[in-house]
């Protein structure tokens, strides 16, 4: 029978820190670890010239110095190569010792310290409590444990280090983790800076598994990496089923709600999607004794979070009898946009959604000192720089996510108040403007959720000499976009002035705090319009005046307005209403 090579196991135990007053534990630990080594290798456990670790004779006088210089290092011994036969019992003993020594700290904490060598080169030092024990043939047969052999790395050219994982920085940068399988034996050839912690983690995790011990704690970044992989998993590669996220507006008229369901195959037509229901008593949209609210799918968008064939579904809400519930503003808007006279005019909308990013714990604008204020307004509008733009990564992520989803987002910019931003949706036709803005808001909510930042649509989040947040609504009809359209625009503005109070009542809660006649707003009780006038209720652009056709901007809506209400009301007043 051919001789099978024996397989060996590497156990790496590395406590990251020990409390003061534990010198006896440290000293005992060193002696116990050395006792597990073969006699011919115990001599190597003395002072290491390269690593400068103390021997038994030196430890008492150098303990304090070692603790000061290395902290946790006084509790460890350097890694080096040892061999020799050993029993499973001794292996378990070594592991037990290491586990006991690391009770007060992380089970696996790879610590790399940089220090200048005598020759001026910077070397990587890794110290670790450890044991290398060969398993018996019987253990190999039962558990099929692989062997992991550490080859020594060179500290300098032609010089061997007593620490197998110690390498110069220049060499470590050039080498990468390489693996090969020779006769069933896994061999680690070299480790670079990035691969080292992962390799040690894998070794320790495997030893814990083999011994039936609980696995070492996983670092948060490793957990997040796994979560990211799962979140980005493409289901389209393995199944025809998709995930549909149903979205609706909650009871406050501003809160977004959603829940997901599995569909058997991709769907592109909202009318082919199944209706669904939810507990309206938990969203302040139905009483507890008759709580069921029905979701009617109305618009489909690609899901930028799950990707693949998965979708976001904008819904409106009805009671079981098929009647729209009071918070369903889309139903009434759809009636207006489906009116023949409105359909002929093809109303276009460009919605400018302003919002403020707040620090989660203190509900204070992002980039502002907690409890304090930044410099006065001026440099922040469309500003660039760490002292002017706060939260750009969130803004840019939202921009791209909306484009992926199929939302007609047309731009972004930093606003006048620091921590405040704007995105624009449009031009969109009719009811689709409201659908797109609501889903864009939903996507922004999801992104700020991940970022740990609070999203605010408050029209005046900070009192005082700071700009508020609006949702300026740009509007045109086919007649306005034709030659001679400027006269149609002026007639439409006149109608809006006659219904000013009705529009103000529907343009968002708390708008009186914003429409003060200052900070680029008109007074809430006064209606006026002008060309290029940002202090007016309605602004007409210079290009529109010059060309005699185009669009106008209603600057009155607040950032928390309902786009279904605002867009349909403007269309109704300017197209259907007869004074």
From TrEMBL:
Q: What sequence ranges are listed for the domain GS beta-grasp?
A: 242-322
Q: Where is the composition biased (Polar residues)?
A: 16-26
**What is this protein identified as?**
Glutamine synthetase
Q: Provide the family line.
A: Belongs to the glutamine synthetase family.
Q: Which InterPro entries match?
A: Gln_synt_N, Gln_synt_N_sf, Gln_synth/guanido_kin_cat_dom, Gln_synth_cat_dom, Gln_synth_gly_rich_site, Gln_synth_N_conserv_site, Glutamine_Synthetase
GO biological process per UniProt: glutamine biosynthetic process
Catalysed reactions, as listed in the record: L-glutamate + NH4(+) + ATP = L-glutamine + ADP + phosphate + H(+)
Q: Name the source's superkingdom.
A: Eukaryota
Q: EC class of this enzyme?
A: ligase
Keyword Ligase attached: yes
For this UniProt record, give its keywords in alphabetical order, as a comma-separated list: ATP-binding, Cytoplasm, Ligase, Nucleotide-binding
Q: Where is the protein found, in the record's own terms?
A: Cytoplasm
Per the record, what is one GO cellular component?
cytoplasm
Region: Disordered; residue ranges are 16-72
Principal localisation = cytoplasm
Name the PANTHER family on file: GLUTAMINE SYNTHETASE, GLUTAMINE SYNTHETASE CYTOSOLIC ISOZYME 1-1
Ranges for domain GS catalytic: 329-579
Cite the record's Acidic residues compositional bias ranges.
56-67
Q: Where is the signal peptide?
A: none
EC code(s) of this entry: 6.3.1.2
According to the UniProt entry, its GO molecular function terms are: ATP binding; glutamine synthetase activity
